Amino acid sequence: MGVEELLARAWAAVEKAGIPEPLHEYAFKEALARLDGSTSVESQSTQDGSPNPAGTKPAPTEEAPADLSDPFAKFAHESGVPVEDLERTFFFTEDGLPHLNGPRAKFARNAADQAKVVAVAITAAYNFVLDQKTVPDEVIKTEAARLKIDIGGNWARAMTKLQGASWVGQARQKQFKTTSTTADSLQNIVKKILGAPIE
User: What average pLDDT does this structure show over 125-140?
Assistant: First the structure.
């Protein structure tokens, strides 16, 4: 199969599958790898993380590879949270944007802590699913407002004490970023929301 035909078939597969636009690039790479008969982009390294020599296949693993074109499968793969738990905690709109399921009372006892849960969870979703390194402050505020979480003028005070994500940038240009503890924090958030014991 020629290169042009391969590219056309991969793109047609992405469009036909109805993949949300933010995931098009990732899904296209996966479709291209599968049509080409090579391994997927995600699995082209050995178990110790070093690249495979050209033309070799990675060693088989016990787990079947996840369909990473599904946002929940990719989210689970990146975060370590089971797909079923993520499906009960989050939802994605038609445009591929992540949102938290309520009720907010399960997030935390007070509004400030509820807002922190929203900040960590949505920042994790944007990073792990959409590969977006930073999330504008306004996105988190909008999600908090959608969930009817109002901390009034205490937003800055609450977010400067945030754990599991960082709140960075100049005033009026603040953004949220994941940290090395985001995945662990997300696991605890999901367990709390679902009423599971936290280790």
Answer: 95
